Amino acid sequence: MIAAEPPPAAEAVVVSRRESSEVVVSRDTPLVLTKAGQREQAFVRQAIFVTTSLSLTRPGGEAPALDSWRWAHQAFLQRQVCFSSMTGLFACAEASVQPLTDAETGEAPVSPVDPEAAPESEAARKRLADGLKPRATALFDADRRQHVEPMLKAAGVVAARR
After folding, report:
1. Which of 4, 76, 92, 118 has the fewest CB atoms nearer than 10 Å to its CB?
2. pTM
């Protein structure tokens, strides 16, 4: 007797999707740059933010099944070096964004009481953001040492905090 393979499970259909970003913490570090006797005011702008993707999914197939929420929250660190001239002009270099290892993903059934709410997703986002806040200073300092200071040193610039 030959057994037939079971039919593949039908893929879930995305009914709706919401995406957003939220800055969790930010910092401007003022610097005085010196090179060949000239001085320039600069800032290292850094932010830790979380992006959220929240999808309402409906199971595929013939059998009736409940819709569910699927979410992914991902943390990122953004850095941007900005300069302020003595004329009052202000300009920034292109921002650089790096993903952090911090993330939250999950899935939960849609509540029949409030089908527009996804409390489990919100709790996961809050847990992620609350975990990032106490580490922000250390993350910003490490990022500055690893990415900003070598760039300034390569340019022959001496940087001092104001």
Report:
1. 4
2. 0.85
Which of 98 and 38 is assigned the larger pLDDT?
A: 98
Question: What are the backbone angles phi and psi of residue 10, rounded to the nearest 5°?
Answer: -70, 140
- Rounded to whole angstroms, the Cα distance separating 112 from 151 reads 54
Residue-averaged pLDDT of the chain: 90
**Residue of 43, 35, 30, 20 whose CA lies nearest to 161:** 30
3-state secondary structure the chain: CCCCCCCCCCCCEEEEEEEEEEEEEEEEEEEEEEECCEEEEEEEEEEEEEEEEEEEEECCCCCCCCCEEEEEEEEEEEEEEEEECCCCCEEECCCEEEEEEEEEEEEEECCCCCCCCCHHHHHHHHHHHHHHHHHHHHHHHHHHHHHHHHHHHHCCCEEEEC
Query: What is the C-alpha to C-alpha distance for residues 6 and 110, in angstroms, rounded to an integer?
Result: 28
Higher pLDDT, 89 or 92: 92
Amino acid, single-letter form, for residue 49? F
How far apart CA 131 and CA 48 sit, in angstroms, is: 12
Q: Are strands 158-161 and 13-35 parallel, antiparallel or unpaired?
A: antiparallel
Find all residues with CB under 8 Å of 112, minimum gap 6, and list them: none
